[in-house]
Amino acid sequence: MYNCLVINEKDTVATVIAPVKAGEEISYAINGKENKIIASEDIPKFHKTALCDIKKGDIVIKYGCKIGYALCDIKKGGYVHTQNLDSKMN
């Protein structure tokens, strides 16, 4: 069973559909292929996690669209939220 929702193969973040604790597995599918990562932080239900390492200043993509820029480095499996994502589209 998947506990994360990914819409587009270009996405760098995904939405967890159940709370995830640090060290737990996050599983999802892209184009029918199952993927798994480990949460590096607690992630609340319906919040975002990084699907890959994201560097400070990188564009963050969700649903195939740019949703902002990383304010700092974000590790794969990390919690992505207002503390590390600038959603202003300058």
Which stretches of 5+ consecutive residues score pLDDT under 50? none
Number of domains: 1
Distinct helical segment count? 0
Termini, distance in Å? 38 Å
Percent helix, as a range, is under 10%
CATH architecture: Roll
Overall pLDDT confidence = 95
- The H-and-E topology, N to C, reads as EEEEEEEEE
Q: Radius of gyration over alpha carbons?
A: 12 Å
Shape: globular
What structural class do you assign from the helix and strand content? mainly beta
- CATH top level is Mainly Beta
**What spatial order of strands do you see in the largest sheet?**
1-2-5-8
Number of DSSP strand runs: 9
How would you classify the quaternary structure?
single chain
Strand content: 35-45%
Main sheet properties: 4 strands, antiparallel
CATH level 3 topology: Archaeosine Trna-guanine Transglycosylase, Chain: A, domain 4
Question: What report would you give on this structure?
Answer:
The protein contains no helices and nine strands. The protein is an all-beta fold. It has a single domain (4-86), classed as Archaeosine Trna-guanine Transglycosylase, Chain: A, domain 4. The strands form three sheets. Strands 1-2-5-8 form a four-stranded antiparallel beta sheet, with no helix packed on it. A three-stranded antiparallel beta sheet has the order 6-7-9, with no helix packed on it.
